[in-house]
Amino acid sequence: MRYLANRAWPVILIGVLGVAAAILYPKWRDASNRGGQTYAEPFRIAGNFYYVGASDTAAFLLTGPQGHVLIDGGLPGTPPLIMQSIAELGFKIGDVKVLLNSHAHFDHAGGLAELQKASGAQLWISDGDADIVAAGNGNASDPFLGPLRFLTYLTILKYPAPRIDHRFKDGATIRLGPIALTAHITPGHTPGCTSWSFPVRDGDRELLVVHACSLDPPTGLSFGSSVGADLGVGRYAEIRAGLERSFRVLRSLPADIWVTSHARQFGRYRKFLERTEAKNPVDPFVDRAGYLAYIDNAEAEYRELIGSR
Ligand SMILES: [Zn+2]
């Protein structure tokens, strides 16, 4: 009897650990799919333009009489947060007819497939990022990963691939009823990184919104020029030329309101709080100086990076 009990302990222990793992694994997977993102209260930024993203990975809704446009899908785990936010504002996910994306990375394209399934919307992706999104492998385009490239094929870095309905080039205009967004390809961060510009009406003024794509160089560019050069001189030069052009293109846009795909960068929370004190709740978001400072800072960091080689 005693002998049997001693033999039973490891079995019981394994059983308990197995049950614990079965309970905890889905929680861990959900948490990593959300990448630490939490709920953020959705709100109107200006006119028909709303914030519906999570605490940092952003998503935006542009509403119209013939349907809505949704920009970015967040991580694979954030669509429930985005859909909850859309519903809280009184809109229906089924009225989203157009899905757009800033760039192909996991944290902005990861939720597109689920949002597309829930809405039936048509997805538009730039020529430069389309193959990456179609493969559901957002970091595979990084030319500087070198031997670390195998990491991009691990399932945790991949995301459910959405159906791409339309591909477009620089300067394309996407329309849905009275809504019109212009695509500015601002490459560097990804080959087809897309900045969007569109007007919104706020009372009797028309404001130009610019959704600026990320300006950070791809991961490996910071490893130094020798590594960059070793791993592909052509791509290295191409990415540098792309980024330099992107700084110029963004500076040339007469943005009144600016946002980015990471909410921290454009000061979502600070501006959200400032709305309560402001005479017009739109005013904290009218921030051309902040827009130019964002581009200046990104360019200064980039110059430091390439100057140090
Ligand atoms: Zn990115």
Which regions contain 5 or more consecutive residues with pLDDT less than 50? Answer: 223-231
User: CATH topology, what is it called?
Assistant: Metallo-beta-lactamase, Chain A
The H-level CATH homologous superfamily, spelled out, is: Ribonuclease Z/Hydroxyacylglutathione hydrolase-like
The helix-strand sequence is HEEEEHEHHEHEEEEEHHEHHH
Q: Name the overall outline.
A: globular
Mind telling me the C-alpha Rg? Answer: 22 Å
User: What does the oligomeric state look like here?
Assistant: single chain
CATH architectural arrangement: 4-Layer Sandwich
**What's the tally of helices?**
10
What proportion strand?
15-25%
Classification by helices and strands: alpha/beta
Helix share, percent: 40-55%
Q: Summarize this, please?
A:
This protein has one domain: Metallo-beta-lactamase, Chain A, CATH 3.60.15. Helices cover 40% and strands 19% of the residues. It has ten helices and twelve strands.
Task: Summarize the helices and strands and which ones pair or pack.
Blueprint: H1 2-34, E1 43-46, E2 49-51, E3 60-62, E4 68-71, H2 79-88, E5 96-100, H3 106-109, H4 112-119, E6 122-126, H5 127-135, E7 166-168, E8 173-176, E9 179-185, E10 194-202, E11 205-212, H6 225-230, H7 233-252, E12 257-260, H8 263-266, H9 268-277, H10 288-307
Parallel strand pairs: 4-5, 5-6, 6-7, 11-12
Antiparallel strand pairs: 1-2, 2-3, 3-4, 8-9, 9-10, 10-11
Helix pairs in contact: 7-10
Bound molecules: zinc ion (ZN).
